[in-house]
Amino acid sequence: MPNIAILWFRRDLRLTDNPALLQAMADNDQVLPLYIHAPADEIPWAPGAASRWWLHWSLQDLDRSLRERGSRLVIDAGEALAVIQRRVAQTGATRVYWNRLYDPATRARDTRIKLALRAQGLVAESHNALLLREPWTILNATGDPYKVYSAFWRKSSPGLAGCTPVPTPPGFRPAPAADSLRSENLGLLPRIAWDQGLRKRWQPGADAAMNRAIRFLDSALDAYAQGRDLPGTTGTSSLSPYLHFGEIGPRQVLALIAARYGTVEAPAAEAYVRELGWREFAHHLLYHFPHTATDPLDPRFARYPWRTEGTAELLAAWQQGRTGIPLVDAGMRELWHTGWMHNRVRMVVASFLTKNLRLPWQAGAAWFWDTLVDADLAANTLGWQWTAGCGADAAPYFRVFNPVRQGERFDPQGTYVRRWCPELAGLPDKFIHQPWAAPAATLRAAGLTLGADYPPPSVDLARSRLEALAGFETIKGSTDGGQDAARS
Ligand SMILES: Cc1cc2nc3c(=O)[nH]c(=O)nc-3n(C[C@H](O)[C@H](O)[C@H](O)COP(=O)(O)OP(=O)(O)OC[C@H]3O[C@@H](n4cnc5c(N)ncnc54)[C@H](O)[C@@H]3O)c2cc1C
Question: What angle do CA 353, 354, 357 make, to 5 degrees?
Answer without folding.
Answer: 55
